[in-house]
Design brief:
CATH superfamily of one domain: Spore Coat Polysaccharide Biosynthesis Protein SpsA, Chain A
Number of strands: 11
Strand content: 15-25%
CATH topology of one domain: Spore Coat Polysaccharide Biosynthesis Protein SpsA, Chain A
Structural class: alpha/beta
Distance between the termini: 43 Å
Largest sheet: 8 strands, mixed
CATH architecture of one domain: Alpha-Beta Complex
């Protein structure tokens, strides 16, 4: 009986691997379709960019400067920190001095409090925003000068309540683990988001860009409506859809400047991300096991070695290498060594398995517990 179960599990893993290979091929096609979308044109409307900050990330000056170099008018940039002593403050002051003709504002502190400190920061920054259209973007993003010009036409579309965009990972320097982290973004997250968009099944709203009108923000209850959500970008998109407005994906890709100092930091970062996705969409996350076809083929061999399982592993590796190459060309990325792809796949599967064993995450210098639907509380708080 035990042997029969091992045979069954081995074939199940192999079947899941084959399903994963079909997914990889389809996702590569979806990436190319997504990147071929045309850009729209339209009248300029005043926009305020909100940049919540905490700490001086690697490349922060270049990241923030890219938002100041927009070929668009009029626009404002509001930078916000919770503490006047934050290391990001000198970087912002340098930009204010460098661009005296621009409307750049620094907000420090404020009375708003929330479990999600990024959202609390946004609540404190909002009164400084002078324009009716808002574009929120994380501090590790870097954009081209036509960023706002690409967003603006979609913001003025009647049924659109939120505009978001995808991003590719760019390592901050030649750091090894930063390169590994970028592989997950470029060959894991990005193709999955492209498939969701193509099938109209994605519910994406990404911290790379969350652009909306003040009227829409007020209609969903303001930033307070997402103050206890770890996945604040996802929650903002869900809130907009709840009031009957559409989330539009802008036809551009921006750069996520990634720095990971070591394996431990990378693993914890991705574990937080994975646990958040699992709590927000448990069924879909469990089904995403097929996005690990190489690992599944290895499991098939370990559980029940057979000629078919070895053939399956060879096909899985070749297909994975092929789709990485296709996606890399589509995203204008350099070549990736084979060993790095296989290392990345093994690490991704380890993170996937580990994400099922706890509901706590480390974020910045705090530990949180994720409740149903992604609700966030400080670890030890009995309110969850």
């Amino acid at each position: 009986m035990q042997l029969e179960w091992l045979v069954f599990l081995g074939w199940a893993c192999l079947a899941a691997s084959v399903a994963g290979l079909l997914y990889l091929v389809f996702s590569a096609y979806a990436v190319r379709i997504l990147l071929g979308q045309p850009r729209h044109s339209g009248a300029a409307t005043p926009i305020t960019i909100l940049k919540p900050l905490r700490g001086a990330d690697v490349g922060l000056y270049e990241n923030l400067r890219s938002f100041c170099r927009q070929t668009y008018a009029p626009f404002q940039v509001v930078f916000g920190v919770a503490d006047a002593d934050d290391p990001a403050v000198p970087v912002v002051r340098r930009l204010i001095a460098e661009f005296p003709a621009l409307d750049l504002v620094l907000v420090t502190g404020g009375s708003a409090r929330a479990p999600n400190r990024k959202v609390a920061n946004l609540m404190n920054m909002l009164p400084a925003a002078r324009h009716g259209q808002l574009a929120i973007s994380d501090s590790d993003m870097r954009v081209t000068p036509d960023y706002l010009a690409t967003l603006a036409p979609l913001l003025s579309t009647p049924d659109v309540g939120l505009v978001t965009c995808l991003y590719r990972g760019v390592p901050a320097g030649g750091d090894f683990w930063s390169r590994v982290a970028c592989l997950h973004i470029n060959h894991g997250f990005f193709p999955e988001a492209a498939v969701g968009e193509m099938l109209d099944a994605g519910d994406g709203a990404f911290g790379a860009t969350l652009a909306m009108s003040r009227a829409t923000l007020d209609a969903i209850g303001g930033f307070a409506a997402i103050a206890d959500q770890l996945a604040d970008d996802h929650a903002l998109g869900a809130a907009v859809r709840h009031i009957g407005r559409r989330v539009a994906l802008a036809p551009m890709i921006i750069d996520n400047i990634v720095f990971e100092p070591g394996l431990g930091a990378l693993f914890l970062h991705e574990l937080r991300w994975s646990r958040t996705v699992r709590m927000v969409a448990p069924a879909g996350y469990a089904g995403s096991v097929i996005t690990h076809p190489v690992a599944l083929a290895v499991l098939a061999i370990l559980i029940h070695p057979s000629a078919w399982s070895f053939y399956g592993l060879i096909v899985a590796i070749l297909t994975r290498l092929g789709t990485v190459w296709l996606n890399g060309r589509a995203l204008a990325l350099g070549r990736t060594p084979i060993y790095l792809i296989l290392l990345r796949d093994g690490l991704s599967f380890a993170v996937f398995i580990a994400s099922f064993f706890a509901r706590n995450v480390a974020w910045r210098d705090r530990r949180y517990r994720i409740g149903t639907g992604g609700r966030l509380t400080l670890d030890g708080d009995s309110s969850v």
